[in-house]
Every structure is written in structure tokens, then in C-alpha cells.
Design goal:
Blueprint (H helix, E strand, L loop, with lengths): L1 H17 L4 E6 L3 H15 L3 E6 L1 H10 L3 E7 H4 L5 E9 L2 E6 L18 E4 L5 H12 L8 E4 L2 H9 L5 E5 H6 L4 E6 L9 E7 L6 H10 L2 H9 L3
Parallel strand pairs: 1-2, 1-3, 6-7, 6-8
Antiparallel strand pairs: 3-10, 4-10, 5-8, 5-9
Helix pairs in contact: 2-9
């Protein structure tokens, strides 16, 4: 009997948790910090709660397909548009690629990666992450021969973790990650915009999902001055 009551309590707790938010979204992992701050500010402004899962673009797509409650995805339009799952895109901001090295080390140019001292270069998976694709493109355009020296990871925060632990010699991250760890990393170089395709951070409103006042309010909030200020603070 106690077991049945416990199971029922767990189910009730799960149901309560599942319906605790007014809006469910999914977000590229590299944008966890700014989006979390946006969700907090949105709640203070409107009283509405947004919850987000985080992962690489393939993961957030899978999450949105498995959970029909997810109404929108925040990520790079370059990845999202070919998926054919969005009925509308709302531009939020532009992303920026950064090259960073561990604390106590310096780097002057992306061309320095040609030197043998840069034996391990961390990048996101080019097929699954926005900044992994941008890093790969940037190295190709800058004629950086890094075969056998790159360490591909599933999500951008993992690149930061390798840099913070000093397990790699350099890594490509976004400006948001760079600002979040600015006191714990060495040199952080912004990459020239022409070395990769534009990174358009967008809200993809998904097809076949019911429209809701919460989604409308969230979309409007993302275009507000308050949201832009938060994004700018995170380098977006």
C-alpha cells in the first residue's frame, strides 16, 4: 500500500512539474547563460515562466519531436531552417566566434595555430553545433592545417571545460562563453566576421503547435530593449 501511495505521489509530482511552466522551449547549449537570464527577466516582467532544455542542434530537434509541448527552439537559423520544422523565424541577435587559450597563455592570431605547440585544439562538432561549423569554416578560409590536432565535442560548453582545465592548447567558443569565463582564460581573440558564415541567433516557432499568449509574450519580449541589453551583456 505504501508503495502504491509513493508511486502515486511521484506521478503527481511529475505531472505538477510538467505543467509548472507557461512555455516550454529548447535551446542550443552555447546560449544557456543568456537564455537563462532572459527567462528570469521575462518572469519578473510578466509573471510567466519559460523553461528550456539545452543541447546541440540535433539534440534539441530530437527533444522537440519527442515532446509536443515544446513550442519553439532558440538556435542558429543555418541549422534550423533546413530541418523544415519551423513555421516562423524571429531574429534575435548575431553570434560571434572567439579563439581562446587556457589561463596563463597567450595567442596573437589564428595563424599561430600553425605552430606545433598547439597540438590539441577543441571545437564543437561541425555537423551538430553552430560554432563548431563556424570554427571549421574559419580554419579552412584562413588556411589552417589542423588535421589530427582538433578535438571535436558535442556541445560548446565542453570546449570551455577543456580550456578551463588546461586539457587543450586552444579552443573555439562564442563570445557569451568567453565573457562568462574571462577571468579564468588566457587570451581571447574575436575571429574576423569574413572567416565564417553569419551566425543568426533566431527563435524558431515550431509547426503544428498551438499558439499561446505565453509564446506571443515571449516573442515580443525578445525584441524589447531589456532583452537586447541582456544579449549585449553576453556578447550577442
Amino acid at each position: 500500500m505504501k508503495s502504491l501511495l509513493f508511486s502515486a505521489a511521484c506521478l503527481l509530482a511529475a505531472a505538477t512539474t510538467a505543467h509548472a511552466s507557461d512555455l516550454l522551449i529548447a535551446t542550443g547549449a552555447g546560449y544557456r547563460k543568456p537564455v537563462t537570464e532572459l527567462m528570469d527577466a521575462f518572469k519578473k516582467e510578466t509573471g510567466l515562466t519559460v523553461e528550456s532544455s539545452f543541447g546541440n542542434m540535433q539534440q534539441v530537434r530530437a527533444q522537440s519531436e519527442q515532446n509536443p509541448e515544446i513550442a519553439a527552439i532558440i538556435g542558429d537559423r543555418f541549422f534550423l531552417e533546413p530541418m523544415g520544422i519551423a513555421q516562423q523565424f524571429v531574429n534575435i541577435s548575431q553570434g560571434a566566434l572567439m579563439l581562446a587559450v587556457p589561463k596563463g597563455k597567450t595567442i596573437d592570431s589564428i595563424q599561430d595555430l600553425q605552430q606545433p605547440g598547439y597540438a590539441r585544439i577543441a571545437i564543437g562538432d561541425a555537423k551538430k553545433t553552430v560554432y563548431g561549423r563556424a570554427a571549421t569554416t574559419c580554419m579552412e578560409r584562413e588556411k589552417i592545417q589542423a588535421n589530427g590536432r582538433t578535438l571535436e565535442v558535442a556541445m560548446l560548453p565542453q570546449v570551455s571545460a577543456y580550456l578551463l582545465n588546461g586539457e587543450v592548447d586552444a579552443g573555439f567558443i562564442n563570445r557569451s562563453e568567453a565573457l562568462a569565463h574571462k577571468d579564468k582564460l588566457g587570451t581571447m581573440l574575436p575571429m574576423p566576421a569574413q572567416c565564417h558564415d553569419p551566425i543568426d541567433l533566431s527563435l524558431a516557432v515550431l509547426k503544428d503547435r498551438p499558439d499561446s499568449p505565453a509564446l506571443q509574450s515571449w516573442t515580443q519580449f525578445l525584441g524589447s530593449g531589456q532583452a537586447k541589453s541582456i544579449l549585449e551583456r553576453h556578447g550577442l
